[in-house]
Amino acid sequence: MIFKPIDRIPYFALVYGMDKNHSVLIIDDDRSIADSLITFYKDHGFSAQSAASGGAAMLMVRENTYDLIILDLGLPDIDGMDLFKALRFNGVDAPIIIVSGQATIKKAIEAIRLGAFNIIEKPPDPAELLLDSLNAVKQRELESEVIRLRRTLLSQNDMVGESECISLLREKLRKIAASESRVYIYGEPGVGKEMAARYLHFASTRATGPFVAVNCAAIPSELFESELFGHERGAFTGAVALHKGKFEAADGGTLFLDEVAELRQEHQAKLLRVIETSIIQRLGASREIKVDVRIVSASNKDLLKETHEGHFREDLYFRLSVIPVTIPPLRERYEDIPLLTRHFLDSMGYGRLRLDSKAISELSYYAWPGNIRELRNIIERASAMAERDIITDSDILQALPGKTGSVLETKSHALTPSMSLAEHTERFEKALLEETLMQANGNITQAAKLLKTDRGNLSKRLKKYGLTDKK
After folding, report:
1. What pTM was estimated for this model as a whole?
2. Which of 40, 72, 117, 152 could form a disulfide with 136 if both were Cys (CB 3.0 to 4.6 A apart)?
Protein backbone atom coordinates (compact mmCIF):
# COMPACT_ATOMS: atom_id res chain seq x y z
CA MET A 1 0.00 0.00 0.00
CA ILE A 2 1.60 3.24 -1.19
CA PHE A 3 0.39 6.66 -0.05
CA LYS A 4 1.14 9.62 -2.31
CA PRO A 5 0.80 13.32 -1.55
CA ILE A 6 -2.74 14.52 -2.26
CA ASP A 7 -2.84 16.69 -5.37
CA ARG A 8 -6.02 18.47 -4.31
CA ILE A 9 -5.86 19.52 -0.68
CA PRO A 10 -9.26 19.29 1.08
CA TYR A 11 -10.98 22.60 1.81
CA PHE A 12 -10.73 21.78 5.53
CA ALA A 13 -6.93 21.63 5.31
CA LEU A 14 -6.82 25.05 3.66
CA VAL A 15 -9.03 26.65 6.31
CA TYR A 16 -7.58 24.86 9.33
CA GLY A 17 -4.04 24.34 8.14
CA MET A 18 -1.41 23.53 10.73
CA ASP A 19 0.58 26.37 12.21
CA LYS A 20 3.31 24.06 13.53
CA ASN A 21 4.94 20.73 12.79
CA HIS A 22 2.88 18.02 14.53
CA SER A 23 4.28 14.65 15.46
CA VAL A 24 2.56 11.36 14.67
CA LEU A 25 3.31 7.84 15.89
CA ILE A 26 2.32 5.02 13.55
CA ILE A 27 1.84 1.66 15.28
CA ASP A 28 1.75 -1.07 12.63
CA ASP A 29 3.72 -4.32 12.28
CA ASP A 30 3.64 -4.18 8.46
CA ARG A 31 6.90 -2.43 7.59
CA SER A 32 5.83 -1.38 4.09
CA ILE A 33 2.59 0.18 5.34
CA ALA A 34 4.38 1.94 8.19
CA ASP A 35 7.00 3.36 5.78
CA SER A 36 4.31 4.50 3.37
CA LEU A 37 2.41 6.25 6.15
CA ILE A 38 5.59 7.93 7.40
CA THR A 39 6.26 9.28 3.91
CA PHE A 40 2.63 10.33 3.52
CA TYR A 41 2.57 12.31 6.79
CA LYS A 42 5.96 13.93 6.17
CA ASP A 43 4.77 15.05 2.73
CA HIS A 44 1.90 16.85 4.47
CA GLY A 45 3.85 18.66 7.15
CA PHE A 46 3.98 16.14 9.98
CA SER A 47 7.00 14.59 11.65
CA ALA A 48 6.47 10.84 11.85
CA GLN A 49 7.86 7.77 13.61
CA SER A 50 6.71 4.16 13.72
CA ALA A 51 6.57 1.23 16.12
CA ALA A 52 6.14 -2.39 14.97
CA SER A 53 4.73 -3.74 18.23
CA GLY A 54 2.82 -2.75 21.33
CA GLY A 55 5.91 -3.02 23.50
CA ALA A 56 7.92 -0.75 21.21
CA ALA A 57 5.04 1.74 21.14
CA MET A 58 4.87 1.90 24.94
CA LEU A 59 8.60 2.60 25.12
CA MET A 60 8.31 5.38 22.56
CA VAL A 61 5.40 7.17 24.27
CA ARG A 62 7.38 7.13 27.53
CA GLU A 63 10.27 8.94 25.84
CA ASN A 64 8.36 11.21 23.43
CA THR A 65 5.19 13.25 23.23
CA TYR A 66 3.00 12.82 20.16
CA ASP A 67 0.16 14.92 18.78
CA LEU A 68 -1.49 12.00 16.98
CA ILE A 69 -1.35 8.20 17.04
CA ILE A 70 -2.29 5.91 14.13
CA LEU A 71 -3.04 2.43 15.52
CA ASP A 72 -3.41 -0.90 13.74
CA LEU A 73 -5.39 -3.48 15.72
CA GLY A 74 -3.47 -6.53 14.44
CA LEU A 75 -0.21 -6.42 16.38
CA PRO A 76 2.09 -9.41 17.08
CA ASP A 77 2.42 -9.02 20.84
CA ILE A 78 -0.84 -7.47 22.03
CA ASP A 79 -4.38 -6.92 20.87
CA GLY A 80 -4.76 -3.42 19.45
CA MET A 81 -7.70 -2.58 21.73
CA ASP A 82 -5.74 -3.67 24.79
CA LEU A 83 -2.87 -1.41 23.67
CA PHE A 84 -5.38 1.43 23.25
CA LYS A 85 -6.48 0.96 26.87
CA ALA A 86 -2.86 0.74 28.06
CA LEU A 87 -1.98 4.02 26.34
CA ARG A 88 -4.86 5.81 28.01
CA PHE A 89 -4.12 4.18 31.37
CA ASN A 90 -0.55 5.50 31.18
CA GLY A 91 -1.69 9.05 30.56
CA VAL A 92 -1.21 9.24 26.78
CA ASP A 93 -3.88 11.76 25.75
CA ALA A 94 -3.00 12.16 22.06
CA PRO A 95 -5.96 11.53 19.71
CA ILE A 96 -5.90 7.99 18.31
CA ILE A 97 -7.11 7.06 14.82
CA ILE A 98 -7.50 3.34 14.26
CA VAL A 99 -6.58 2.19 10.75
CA SER A 100 -7.17 -1.53 10.47
CA GLY A 101 -8.46 -4.28 8.22
CA GLN A 102 -9.69 -6.20 11.28
CA ALA A 103 -12.16 -3.62 12.51
CA THR A 104 -15.53 -5.21 13.20
CA ILE A 105 -18.61 -3.20 14.09
CA LYS A 106 -18.28 -4.38 17.69
CA LYS A 107 -14.66 -3.21 17.88
CA ALA A 108 -15.53 0.08 16.20
CA ILE A 109 -18.22 0.77 18.81
CA GLU A 110 -15.83 -0.16 21.63
CA ALA A 111 -13.07 2.04 20.19
CA ILE A 112 -15.33 5.09 19.91
CA ARG A 113 -16.65 4.45 23.42
CA LEU A 114 -13.08 4.41 24.75
CA GLY A 115 -12.35 7.71 23.03
CA ALA A 116 -10.86 6.88 19.64
CA PHE A 117 -11.09 9.85 17.30
CA ASN A 118 -12.13 7.65 14.38
CA ILE A 119 -11.76 4.16 12.98
CA ILE A 120 -10.89 3.72 9.29
CA GLU A 121 -10.82 0.52 7.22
CA LYS A 122 -7.67 -0.46 5.34
CA PRO A 123 -6.70 0.69 2.84
CA PRO A 124 -7.68 4.22 3.92
CA ASP A 125 -8.59 6.95 1.50
CA PRO A 126 -5.68 9.44 1.64
CA ALA A 127 -7.94 12.51 1.65
CA GLU A 128 -10.08 11.05 4.44
CA LEU A 129 -7.01 10.14 6.47
CA LEU A 130 -5.53 13.62 6.10
CA LEU A 131 -8.86 15.23 6.94
CA ASP A 132 -9.22 13.15 10.11
CA SER A 133 -5.61 13.78 11.10
CA LEU A 134 -5.91 17.57 10.74
CA ASN A 135 -9.23 17.52 12.54
CA ALA A 136 -7.81 15.47 15.40
CA VAL A 137 -4.77 17.67 16.04
CA LYS A 138 -6.83 20.86 15.77
CA GLN A 139 -9.36 19.55 18.26
CA ARG A 140 -6.57 18.63 20.64
CA GLU A 141 -5.09 22.13 20.29
CA LEU A 142 -8.46 23.68 21.12
CA GLU A 143 -8.92 21.40 24.14
CA SER A 144 -5.42 22.26 25.37
CA GLU A 145 -6.13 25.97 24.93
CA VAL A 146 -9.35 25.64 26.91
CA ILE A 147 -7.46 23.88 29.72
CA ARG A 148 -4.76 26.56 29.69
CA LEU A 149 -7.37 29.32 29.74
CA ARG A 150 -9.22 27.68 32.62
CA ARG A 151 -5.99 27.42 34.63
CA THR A 152 -5.19 31.07 33.94
CA LEU A 153 -8.66 32.22 34.93
CA LEU A 154 -8.57 30.06 38.05
CA SER A 155 -5.19 31.46 39.13
CA GLN A 156 -6.51 34.99 38.63
CA ASN A 157 -9.56 34.21 40.77
CA ASP A 158 -7.89 32.09 43.42
CA MET A 159 -8.66 32.62 47.08
CA VAL A 160 -5.68 34.07 48.94
CA GLY A 161 -4.57 32.08 51.96
CA GLU A 162 -2.76 28.96 53.09
CA SER A 163 -4.50 28.33 56.42
CA GLU A 164 -5.98 24.91 57.02
CA CYS A 165 -9.58 26.13 56.79
CA ILE A 166 -8.98 27.91 53.47
CA SER A 167 -7.07 24.94 52.05
CA LEU A 168 -9.98 22.66 52.96
CA LEU A 169 -12.46 25.14 51.47
CA ARG A 170 -10.46 25.40 48.25
CA GLU A 171 -10.35 21.60 47.95
CA LYS A 172 -14.09 21.32 48.61
CA LEU A 173 -14.87 23.91 45.94
CA ARG A 174 -12.70 22.05 43.43
CA LYS A 175 -14.68 18.87 44.05
CA ILE A 176 -18.00 20.70 43.81
CA ALA A 177 -16.89 22.40 40.59
CA ALA A 178 -16.89 19.07 38.79
CA SER A 179 -20.66 18.78 39.23
CA GLU A 180 -23.56 20.90 38.00
CA SER A 181 -25.28 20.99 41.40
CA ARG A 182 -26.52 24.28 42.79
CA VAL A 183 -24.45 25.68 45.66
CA TYR A 184 -25.44 27.91 48.57
CA ILE A 185 -22.61 29.90 50.19
CA TYR A 186 -23.04 31.15 53.74
CA GLY A 187 -20.74 33.59 55.50
CA GLU A 188 -20.54 36.82 57.45
CA PRO A 189 -20.41 40.12 55.54
CA GLY A 190 -17.03 40.66 53.90
CA VAL A 191 -15.68 37.09 54.07
CA GLY A 192 -15.44 36.77 50.29
CA LYS A 193 -18.57 34.90 49.22
CA GLU A 194 -18.43 36.24 45.68
CA MET A 195 -14.74 35.34 45.43
CA ALA A 196 -15.63 31.76 46.42
CA ALA A 197 -18.37 31.73 43.78
CA ARG A 198 -15.90 32.97 41.16
CA TYR A 199 -13.39 30.31 42.17
CA LEU A 200 -16.11 27.68 41.85
CA HIS A 201 -17.00 28.95 38.38
CA PHE A 202 -13.46 29.11 37.05
CA ALA A 203 -12.64 25.66 38.44
CA SER A 204 -15.59 24.17 36.54
CA THR A 205 -16.17 23.21 32.92
CA ARG A 206 -18.11 26.49 32.61
CA ALA A 207 -14.94 28.54 33.13
CA THR A 208 -14.96 29.93 29.60
CA GLY A 209 -18.61 30.91 29.92
CA PRO A 210 -19.94 34.07 31.59
CA PHE A 211 -19.97 34.69 35.33
CA VAL A 212 -22.84 37.04 36.17
CA ALA A 213 -23.28 38.41 39.70
CA VAL A 214 -26.55 39.85 40.97
CA ASN A 215 -27.11 41.59 44.30
CA CYS A 216 -30.68 40.57 45.06
CA ALA A 217 -30.98 43.13 47.85
CA ALA A 218 -30.20 45.97 45.43
CA ILE A 219 -32.90 45.18 42.84
CA PRO A 220 -36.01 47.40 43.18
CA SER A 221 -39.12 45.26 43.58
CA GLU A 222 -40.78 46.60 40.43
CA LEU A 223 -37.69 45.81 38.31
CA PHE A 224 -37.06 42.27 39.57
CA GLU A 225 -38.49 40.43 36.54
CA SER A 226 -36.93 42.84 34.07
CA GLU A 227 -33.49 42.50 35.66
CA LEU A 228 -33.50 38.71 35.92
CA PHE A 229 -35.62 37.66 32.94
CA GLY A 230 -35.39 40.68 30.61
CA HIS A 231 -38.05 42.58 28.70
CA GLU A 232 -39.15 43.30 25.15
CA ARG A 233 -39.30 46.76 23.66
CA GLY A 234 -42.51 48.47 24.75
CA ALA A 235 -43.18 45.97 27.56
CA PHE A 236 -43.73 48.89 29.95
CA THR A 237 -43.26 52.62 30.08
CA GLY A 238 -39.59 53.36 29.55
CA ALA A 239 -38.82 50.04 27.85
CA VAL A 240 -37.46 51.66 24.69
CA ALA A 241 -35.32 48.69 23.67
CA LEU A 242 -35.06 44.94 24.12
CA HIS A 243 -33.23 44.03 27.32
CA LYS A 244 -31.74 40.62 28.09
CA GLY A 245 -31.96 39.65 31.73
CA LYS A 246 -29.29 38.16 33.96
CA PHE A 247 -30.36 34.58 33.20
CA GLU A 248 -29.80 35.08 29.48
CA ALA A 249 -26.54 36.90 30.13
CA ALA A 250 -25.33 33.92 32.18
CA ASP A 251 -26.39 31.30 29.60
CA GLY A 252 -23.65 28.68 29.39
CA GLY A 253 -22.04 29.95 32.59
CA THR A 254 -22.77 30.71 36.23
CA LEU A 255 -25.35 33.05 37.78
CA PHE A 256 -24.37 34.24 41.26
CA LEU A 257 -27.34 35.39 43.36
CA ASP A 258 -25.88 37.32 46.28
CA GLU A 259 -28.02 38.22 49.32
CA VAL A 260 -30.67 35.78 48.11
CA ALA A 261 -32.33 35.82 51.54
CA GLU A 262 -33.51 39.37 50.82
CA LEU A 263 -35.85 38.30 48.00
CA ARG A 264 -39.53 39.05 48.51
CA GLN A 265 -41.93 36.09 48.67
CA GLU A 266 -43.47 36.77 45.23
CA HIS A 267 -39.99 36.97 43.69
CA GLN A 268 -38.99 33.73 45.35
CA ALA A 269 -41.90 31.96 43.63
CA LYS A 270 -40.87 33.26 40.20
CA LEU A 271 -37.25 32.27 40.79
CA LEU A 272 -38.34 28.80 41.87
CA ARG A 273 -40.20 28.24 38.60
CA VAL A 274 -37.17 29.17 36.51
CA ILE A 275 -34.92 26.90 38.56
CA GLU A 276 -37.31 23.98 38.10
CA THR A 277 -37.84 24.45 34.35
CA SER A 278 -34.68 26.27 33.15
CA ILE A 279 -37.10 28.39 31.11
CA ILE A 280 -37.53 32.16 31.24
CA GLN A 281 -39.91 34.54 29.54
CA ARG A 282 -39.08 38.18 28.99
CA LEU A 283 -41.66 40.74 30.04
CA GLY A 284 -43.88 41.49 27.08
CA ALA A 285 -42.76 38.39 25.16
CA SER A 286 -44.94 35.54 23.94
CA ARG A 287 -42.20 32.95 23.56
CA GLU A 288 -40.21 31.14 26.22
CA ILE A 289 -36.42 30.84 26.23
CA LYS A 290 -34.45 27.81 27.43
CA VAL A 291 -31.35 28.72 29.45
CA ASP A 292 -28.37 26.68 30.60
CA VAL A 293 -27.25 28.26 33.85
CA ARG A 294 -25.62 26.99 37.02
CA ILE A 295 -26.93 28.89 40.01
CA VAL A 296 -24.74 29.72 42.98
CA SER A 297 -26.46 31.70 45.73
CA ALA A 298 -25.18 33.34 48.90
CA SER A 299 -26.27 35.20 52.00
CA ASN A 300 -24.98 36.31 55.38
CA LYS A 301 -28.16 34.95 56.93
CA ASP A 302 -28.84 31.38 58.01
CA LEU A 303 -31.18 30.41 55.18
CA LEU A 304 -32.52 27.36 57.03
CA LYS A 305 -33.41 29.57 60.00
CA GLU A 306 -35.07 32.04 57.63
CA THR A 307 -37.10 29.13 56.26
CA HIS A 308 -38.21 27.98 59.71
CA GLU A 309 -39.26 31.53 60.56
CA GLY A 310 -41.35 31.78 57.41
CA HIS A 311 -39.21 34.40 55.67
CA PHE A 312 -37.95 32.09 52.92
CA ARG A 313 -39.74 29.42 50.91
CA GLU A 314 -38.78 25.92 51.98
CA ASP A 315 -39.05 24.50 48.45
CA LEU A 316 -36.74 27.23 47.11
CA TYR A 317 -34.30 26.63 49.97
CA PHE A 318 -33.98 22.95 49.02
CA ARG A 319 -33.52 23.86 45.35
CA LEU A 320 -30.75 26.37 46.11
CA SER A 321 -28.95 24.61 48.94
CA VAL A 322 -28.14 21.32 47.22
CA ILE A 323 -24.53 21.74 48.36
CA PRO A 324 -24.05 24.19 51.27
CA VAL A 325 -20.67 25.86 51.75
CA THR A 326 -19.57 27.98 54.70
CA ILE A 327 -16.83 30.60 54.37
CA PRO A 328 -14.83 31.03 57.62
CA PRO A 329 -14.51 34.54 59.07
CA LEU A 330 -11.12 36.23 59.12
CA ARG A 331 -10.81 35.80 62.91
CA GLU A 332 -10.56 32.04 62.31
CA ARG A 333 -7.69 32.38 59.83
CA TYR A 334 -5.32 34.95 61.31
CA GLU A 335 -2.37 33.15 59.74
CA ASP A 336 -3.61 34.31 56.31
CA ILE A 337 -3.37 38.01 57.19
CA PRO A 338 0.26 38.47 55.96
CA LEU A 339 -0.63 36.93 52.57
CA LEU A 340 -3.83 38.95 52.30
CA THR A 341 -2.09 42.22 53.13
CA ARG A 342 0.62 41.52 50.55
CA HIS A 343 -2.07 40.77 47.97
CA PHE A 344 -3.92 44.01 48.74
CA LEU A 345 -0.76 46.12 48.65
CA ASP A 346 0.17 44.73 45.24
CA SER A 347 -3.34 45.05 43.79
CA MET A 348 -3.78 48.65 45.01
CA GLY A 349 -0.48 49.88 43.61
CA TYR A 350 1.41 49.93 46.90
CA GLY A 351 3.79 47.14 45.97
CA ARG A 352 6.78 49.09 47.32
CA LEU A 353 5.33 49.04 50.85
CA ARG A 354 5.72 46.31 53.41
CA LEU A 355 4.43 45.80 56.94
CA ASP A 356 6.84 45.35 59.82
CA SER A 357 6.31 42.55 62.33
CA LYS A 358 4.62 44.82 64.87
CA ALA A 359 2.12 45.99 62.27
CA ILE A 360 1.28 42.38 61.40
CA SER A 361 0.91 41.70 65.13
CA GLU A 362 -1.59 44.54 65.51
CA LEU A 363 -3.62 43.20 62.59
CA SER A 364 -3.59 39.73 64.13
CA TYR A 365 -5.05 41.00 67.40
CA TYR A 366 -8.02 42.80 65.87
CA ALA A 367 -11.40 40.99 65.81
CA TRP A 368 -12.25 41.95 62.17
CA PRO A 369 -16.04 42.25 62.33
CA GLY A 370 -15.96 43.34 58.66
CA ASN A 371 -13.66 40.47 57.71
CA ILE A 372 -11.57 40.61 54.50
CA ARG A 373 -13.41 43.66 53.15
CA GLU A 374 -12.51 45.59 56.31
CA LEU A 375 -8.90 44.36 56.16
CA ARG A 376 -8.59 45.71 52.62
CA ASN A 377 -9.94 49.10 53.72
CA ILE A 378 -7.56 49.25 56.68
CA ILE A 379 -4.56 48.37 54.49
CA GLU A 380 -5.52 51.02 51.95
CA ARG A 381 -5.95 53.62 54.72
CA ALA A 382 -2.65 52.73 56.39
CA SER A 383 -0.84 52.73 53.03
CA ALA A 384 -2.07 56.22 52.24
CA MET A 385 -0.86 57.50 55.62
CA ALA A 386 2.50 55.70 55.68
CA GLU A 387 5.42 58.15 55.63
CA ARG A 388 8.02 55.60 54.57
CA ASP A 389 8.17 52.33 52.63
CA ILE A 390 7.34 50.47 55.82
CA ILE A 391 3.88 50.39 57.41
CA THR A 392 4.35 50.40 61.17
CA ASP A 393 2.12 49.43 64.07
CA SER A 394 1.39 53.13 64.59
CA ASP A 395 0.06 53.38 61.03
CA ILE A 396 -2.16 50.37 61.65
CA LEU A 397 -3.44 51.68 64.99
CA GLN A 398 -4.36 55.00 63.38
CA ALA A 399 -6.17 53.18 60.58
CA LEU A 400 -8.11 50.83 62.83
CA PRO A 401 -11.52 52.00 64.08
CA GLY A 402 -11.68 53.19 67.71
CA LYS A 403 -7.96 53.98 67.78
CA THR A 404 -8.42 56.41 70.65
CA GLY A 405 -9.65 53.66 72.95
CA SER A 406 -7.63 51.05 74.79
CA VAL A 407 -5.56 48.77 72.60
CA LEU A 408 -6.29 45.99 75.06
CA GLU A 409 -10.02 46.55 74.67
CA THR A 410 -9.75 45.88 70.93
CA LYS A 411 -7.44 42.90 71.18
CA SER A 412 -8.97 40.98 74.04
CA HIS A 413 -12.40 40.53 72.43
CA ALA A 414 -11.15 38.61 69.38
CA LEU A 415 -12.61 35.18 70.15
CA THR A 416 -11.26 32.60 67.71
CA PRO A 417 -13.09 29.24 67.87
CA SER A 418 -10.17 27.42 66.26
CA MET A 419 -7.79 28.49 69.08
CA SER A 420 -7.33 26.69 72.39
CA LEU A 421 -7.75 28.25 75.83
CA ALA A 422 -3.96 28.41 76.22
CA GLU A 423 -3.61 30.26 72.90
CA HIS A 424 -6.34 32.72 73.87
CA THR A 425 -4.64 33.24 77.24
CA GLU A 426 -1.28 33.98 75.60
CA ARG A 427 -2.91 36.44 73.23
CA PHE A 428 -4.58 38.24 76.10
CA GLU A 429 -1.40 38.27 78.19
CA LYS A 430 0.64 39.77 75.34
CA ALA A 431 -2.01 42.42 74.74
CA LEU A 432 -2.06 43.21 78.48
CA LEU A 433 1.73 43.57 78.58
CA GLU A 434 1.76 45.86 75.55
CA GLU A 435 -1.02 48.03 77.02
CA THR A 436 0.75 48.29 80.34
CA LEU A 437 4.07 49.22 78.71
CA MET A 438 2.31 51.97 76.79
CA GLN A 439 0.83 53.35 80.01
CA ALA A 440 4.26 53.19 81.67
CA ASN A 441 5.92 54.89 78.66
CA GLY A 442 8.12 51.83 78.17
CA ASN A 443 9.45 51.82 81.74
CA ILE A 444 9.59 48.18 82.84
CA THR A 445 9.95 48.97 86.52
CA GLN A 446 6.86 51.17 86.41
CA ALA A 447 4.99 48.55 84.39
CA ALA A 448 5.86 45.90 86.99
CA LYS A 449 4.38 48.10 89.73
CA LEU A 450 1.17 48.57 87.72
CA LEU A 451 0.89 44.79 87.30
CA LYS A 452 1.83 44.16 90.95
CA THR A 453 4.69 41.81 90.02
CA ASP A 454 8.48 41.96 90.29
CA ARG A 455 10.63 43.36 87.51
CA GLY A 456 12.44 40.05 86.87
CA ASN A 457 9.21 38.13 86.29
CA LEU A 458 7.91 40.85 83.98
CA SER A 459 11.18 40.89 81.99
CA LYS A 460 10.91 37.13 81.38
CA ARG A 461 7.38 37.50 80.10
CA LEU A 462 8.31 40.43 77.89
CA LYS A 463 11.15 38.38 76.41
CA LYS A 464 8.75 35.48 75.79
CA TYR A 465 6.59 37.68 73.57
CA GLY A 466 9.44 39.57 71.93
CA LEU A 467 8.59 42.82 73.72
CA THR A 468 11.98 43.47 75.31
CA ASP A 469 12.77 46.17 72.75
CA LYS A 470 10.01 48.28 74.32
CA LYS A 471 12.14 49.04 77.38
Report:
1. 0.61
2. 117
